[in-house]
Amino acid sequence: MSSSKNLAYEYALGLLTQEQKAAIDLTPAFLKEVEDAHLKLSALQLQAPLDKDSSQKIWNNISQQINSEKESWQQVLASRFRMWLYVLPAIFLAFGSLMLFEQTSQISDPYSMAIINAKAGWEVNADIDNHKLSIASVNPMLVGKNEVCALWVQKDGVTHFISILPNAGDKVVSMSPKIAQMLKGGEAIISIESSDKPMYSPTRIEYRNQLS
Amino acid sequence: MDKNLVFYFEKLQQNKTQKNFEQIYKLTSVRLFGVIIRILKRKELSEDCLQEVYVKIWNRIDTYDATRANMMTWMSTIARNHAIDYVRKHELPIQDDFELSIIKDDQVHFLDSLENNEANKQLHECLGQLKAESKTVVFMAYFNGLTYDTIAKSVGSPVSTVKTWVSRSLPILKKCLENAHV
Question: Which of A181, B14, B61, B110 has its CA 20 to 30 A from that of A199?
């Protein structure tokens, strides 16, 4: 066995210091021998020094970790389920209310006729008997790019949002008998609102008039 | 590949239970530990890394494709790559890129040919011919990355004595390894 091959094994085993390695002439032939030694030595990996106690300890840790990951997934699923338990009824309630409003708004009931004389730019006719509001834009409204006109009715200190109004042209708003009843004696308000924000109450009031 | 390993792996794929996975662990942990410690060089870090590797294998078991690689190759590749990531993540000292590439693909494939109890048993018996001190030196160098100088200090013997042990043991070691590779 040549000393060169011994050196290749010593090199591959890692017995040499950096300085000793640096002193070796790394010819392609030598590097090939080192690579071959690495390959042969890899069989030693089957004899790796993992004792039984360490192995058992490692397995216990793996087992615990797998369990905890499984539990954490279950917790995530449970928390999502709980979230939907609250969110779904809320969605159904909101949707139900909307449907109820749509349905009731189509019910016919006789009410008296009222005319709102809108001032600047608007003419609002309230046909309470037929629970309809007819809004005509006399002059095109001047609103900003992200602004809209909104119709509200205020009664007994409470303001109700009725509808978004067109910038130009006419719009007829159908109301439920209850809403029509509520309108009676209330105050119509037209305001300019930002179209990209929720509308909770009139912001920039352009028009107010008592409904008769 | 070990028939027991194939049996338990198929069982694990059909029924992903910890009990089946534990059998896989028992059959493969020494070998994967060998792959890891060869890269990390430190026992405690290698144990920590081995734990991470098996958790990774557990999580990926459903993605294993038997048509692309045999199971041992697949697991060894995960272990090798994770160990290299571990070195970089923990900024462990490495000598050069050559050190990180020591567990090459051909070594991983090559180990598959040894992965049966008979070959392992033969290797174990063959290495038994080495004197205890020589075997210790070889293992300290290979698995712990210790040089002649540090081994000499560790065992309390002169460097020249350690070199003599190695030079006497290398012919036996080579013979054992070559036989194991046949």
Answer: A181
Q: Which of B52, B141, B34, B59 is nearest to A70 (CA)?
A: B59
Amino acid identity of A31? Answer: L
Task: Name all domains of chain B by residue range, CATH numbers in brackets.
Answer: 1-115 (1.10.1740.10), 116-182 (1.10.10.10)
Distance between CA A69 and CA B55 in Å, rounded? Answer: 10
Please check whether residue A14 touches B, CB under 8 A: yes
CA distance B5 to chain A (A): 15
Instruction: Give yes or no for a contact between B32 and A44, defined as CB atoms under 8 angstroms apart.
Output: no
Q: What is the ipTM of this complex?
A: 0.84
In the predicted model, is pLDDT for residue A136 greater than 60? yes
Please give the angle made by the CA atoms of A63, B111 and A45, to the nearest 5 degrees. 65
Two tokens, residue B5:
């390993």
Class at the top of the CATH hierarchy for domain A113-210: mainly beta
CA–CA distance, A69 with B48 (Å, rounded to integer): 17
Nearest-CB residue to A15 (from B34, B58, B141): B141
pLDDT at A118 > cutoff 60 = no
pLDDT tens for each residue of B95-134: 554 455 555 666 666 666 665 566 777 888 888 888 889 9
Nearest CB neighbour to A16, from listed B55, B142, B147: B147
Mean pLDDT of A89-113: 57
